[in-house]
Target: D-aminopeptidase
Amino acid sequence: MTQLKQSAPRIGVLQAGPLNLISDVPGITVGHATHADAQIQTGVTVLRPHAGDLFQDKVPAAATVLNGFAKSIGLLQLDELGVLETPIALTNTFSVAAVAQGQVRQAIAANPEIGRLLPTVNPLVFECNDGYLNDIQAMALTEHDYLMAFDSAQQRFGQGAIGAGRGMSCFQLKGGIGSASRQTPGADPYTVGALVLANFGKLPMLTVGGHLVGPRLQAKIGGHDDSVEKGSIIILVATDAPLDSRQLRRLSLRAGVGLSRTGSVFGHGSGDVALAFSTAYTIPHLPVRKMPCVALLHDVLLDPLFQACAEAVEQAIVNALWSAESIQGRNGHWRTSIADLIPDWQQWLNTTGD
Model:
């Protein structure tokens, strides 16, 4: 169940869904597998767009690479065909292969002719480097961790230092998994949800709800860090609006708006990837089944979705920061939670001193 350590700052003007999670988009569930043992601080997070067999019933999707310093798998075919055919997995950089192998074995178990009478399956795994807190060289994650995360997927799920977010840093504070949702205005609204794996940013640049707070936080914790940006963020955006892959690519690009509002400049060493998908319909794998006849949303009506995307992504990053706990990991490395650093955010924001 989602629990913020304290109430996170509210971003934007649009209404959130009932849970303020990406799972406010109907059908979506999320699960985690977490390793938290001294030197090993890592994990896997799995998002399931629907409860069925994604290989047989694919969902439309598209991605935007904001900065390509990344080692993901599956983007090439996604860009070509515009569909998801496995759940989306998040993990650390050196565990991409193990998690992808788990996805492939799972798909074969459900469809034994994959790679024989049926085409091969396209696993989809995104990564961030958690090597500051986690002994990434230990390669502690296995296929089993992917399956554990998959099996634990539910509508209510944890945020912060959990699953793939366990060892991640954000603005040189503790980061990780964050999620949020927004609804478009009107009597029959669409929902846009976001889930982020936040592992990016330089503290002096941190901006929360339009307030540049990074310099004050830097002064509070002391020291000066002139190292280059070398983090990453993975942004997953979901909607129940009926969009095709072309429109979803446009939606995924707007995730960069929410990201930039927090103070990111998509640094040289940052792998920043945004993927958007729709749950409004599915696309059958087998040609004997008819393609869906869907009345797509007109492009002129996309602006409210773009706004909802930007707000949900910004809120998800803020929620990742406020949900995380302070952690000591590899070789005594430490990341402080912003909720521990500033127990009362609003009071701190309204004062000139610390």
